[in-house]
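Below is our example:

___
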Amino acid sequence: MTEVRDPAQCADDIAAARDALLDFTAACTAGDWQRHVLDDQGDPRPVGVVVDHVAHSYEYLAGWIRECVAGGSPAVSTDLVDALNARHAAAAGQVSRDQAAEHLRRSGDAIIELVAGLSSAQLDIDDGQVRRFALIAARHASDHRSDLQAALRASADQAD
């Protein structure tokens, strides 16, 4: 059974995942930042673009949460997310570590504040859609960080 999280807990989960990604970002070497370590998983983006992608995703997730809370129902689809990701990858090709870290802090703070300010009833809007967006925000950062760390470790092991 999945534990039901209240808004403060959801916000804390997002903050913890974002902070772990910020720590990962700070530990990346300049060479790591430019590496394409997820190619074998079908993701051609370099490490830096993947990190900045998480910051970008906080922005559209927060927008969808606001839309739901305002009474709307965002038309979210795999095609839409794929298009957002493709546009971001094209625009963020040379993002620096400092730029990505600042983007993560800024967009992360915004979604953390948004989610923390919701009521439990607002998390349940649209059959729990708002809660799912909050959970995605936390999981997304953790999943990408884990994938990148594992790929960098595997790459380093192959080089030894």
